[in-house]
Amino acid sequence: MKRASYCAVFTAILACGIYLAQTGAASNNSNASVATRQAPAPGAPAPQAGRGGFGGPIELGPDDKPAFADPPAGFDVRRDNIPHGDVTAVEYDSKTLGTRRRMRVYTPPGYSTSRKYPVLYLLHGIGGNDLEWTRACHADVVIDNMLADGLIQPMIVVFPNGNASVTADAADAGRGAGMGGAARGGADAAAGPRGAGAGAPGARGAGTGAARDFGGWGTPFENDLLKEIIPYIESHYSVYTDRDRRALAGLSMGGGQTLNIGLAHVDTFAWVGGFSSAPNTKAPAELVPDPAVPKRLKLLWLACGNKDGLIRISQGVHTYLKEKGVPHVWHVDGNAHDTTEWANNLYLFAQRIFK
Q1: Among 310, 351, 285, which Cα is nearest to 53's?
Q2: Is the separation of the CB atoms in 159 and 105 below 8 Å?
Q3: CA-to-CA distance for 78 and 101, rounded, in angstroms?
Q4: C-alpha gyration radius of the chain
Q5: Is the distance from CB of 109 to CB of 229 less than 8 angstroms?
Q6: 49 by DSSP, 3-state: which?
Q7: Distance CA 133, CA 308 (A)
Q8: d(Cα 16, Cα 7) in Å, to the nearest integer?
Q9: Is residue 128 within 8 Å of 178, Cβ to Cβ?
Q10: Distance CA 354, CA 351 (A)
């Protein structure tokens, strides 16, 4: 009965999300339609059209292709013969929000206050919480394995709750866990098989300004991240406090949050990554009113699967950045709006930050 109830709720959210993505994403910016309907360059493959997906029909242009090969098999499978980091639940008092909140913090194997570490902040999807990246995408396992293989330097990874309306008490009661970016039969199924499906993209399409603030997912969370979460991490952990050693990335709704916040605060973050960014993403011209600003980033990463109907959001941003001469990675692989996409991009993104 409980599982049936979860499924019924998810079906309703999904149906609403698909409709809003189809209608709202078109208003994200006219550049989104340019990206999907532009004529291919001479000698380039013709755009693919007609395939359906979460968020609506998918049309691919000549730019929509992988920038990197997929991760190797087993990159996200826990190994018993290597050191493992710790993931700890951390509560903090948010003066900005006037409430007590919770996040998760990954510290690498051998964490020591005798050295300093760079920090990656990872944001989850609309139905998820501070557990989504570790339960559904096995982010801690991915980082452990890359450290063991010498692919990345030791780092701290912070998993905030991206919905500023969720308190620590609500998290204790199981509220705010939702269905996450991946379709899950119940809250506990997040730890099950990956790549199961898609989560709802948001509540109100992709308008502009306050009309598209998405409640606690918009300005309230931005303030909590900048004024509470980052200062807490920097006062309680042995970390660097400069922008060059601070990165921000996210999946789905968290991808939209990442682009909205990261591109507006290049003095705070030098590395920004949006994976399968949802319709909460600001219109490209609003994201980048001055093309000189994102050029200060050391890495701007956009990624989406070619089976994801929300690809039009990232296509629009990519096209705009390309027109404005803003350097960025545009990585389109063969996945959908799913946990495989997000774990893969974490693997690829993490190797290219803090260099």
Answers
A1: 310
A2: yes
A3: 29
A4: 19
A5: no
A6: strand
A7: 19
A8: 14
A9: yes
A10: 8
Measured CA to CA, the distance from residue 43 to residue 139 in angstroms comes to 39
Contact (Cβ atoms closer than 8 angstroms) between residue 309 and residue 276: no
How high is the pLDDT of residue 168?
Answer: 87
Answer whether residue 52 shows pLDDT above 60. Answer: no
In this prediction, residue 8 carries a pLDDT of 35
What value, to the nearest 5°, has the Cα angle with vertex 175 and ends 170 and 180?
130
DSSP string, 85-111: -EEEEEEEEETTTTEEEEEEEEE-TT-
End-to-end CA distance of the chain: 50
Beta bridge partners of 88: 105
* Residue 196: both structure tokens together: 């199961």
pLDDT over 70 (residue 167): yes
Query: Each residue of 99-130: pLDDT tens digit?
Result: 999 999 999 999 999 999 999 999 999 989 99
pLDDT score of 62 more than 60: yes
For residue 328, give the 3-state DSSP assignment.
Answer: coil
Alpha helices in the chain (DSSP H): 2-24, 30-37, 132-135, 139-148, 168-172, 219-224, 230-236, 253-262, 284-287, 311-323, 339-350
pTM greater than the 0.85 cutoff: no
Measured between alpha carbons, how far is 306 from 91 in angstroms, rounded to an integer?
A: 38
Q: Which amino acid is at 270?
A: A
Calpha distance 250→342 (Å, rounded): 8
Q: 151: how many CB neighbours lie within 10 A of its CB? A: 13
The answer on pLDDT for 208 being more than 60 is no
pLDDT for the residue 212: 54
Residue type, 276: S
Phi and psi at residue 247, to the nearest 5°: -125, 155
Mean pLDDT, the chain, rounded, equals: 80
Task: State the pLDDT confidence band at 141, using cuts at 50, 70 and 90.
Answer: very high
Cβ-based burial of 355 (10 A; exposed 0-12, middle 13-18, buried ≥19): exposed
CATH architecture type of domain 2-350: 3-Layer(aba) Sandwich (3.40)
Q: pLDDT digits over 334-353, tens only?
A: 999 999 999 999 999 999 99
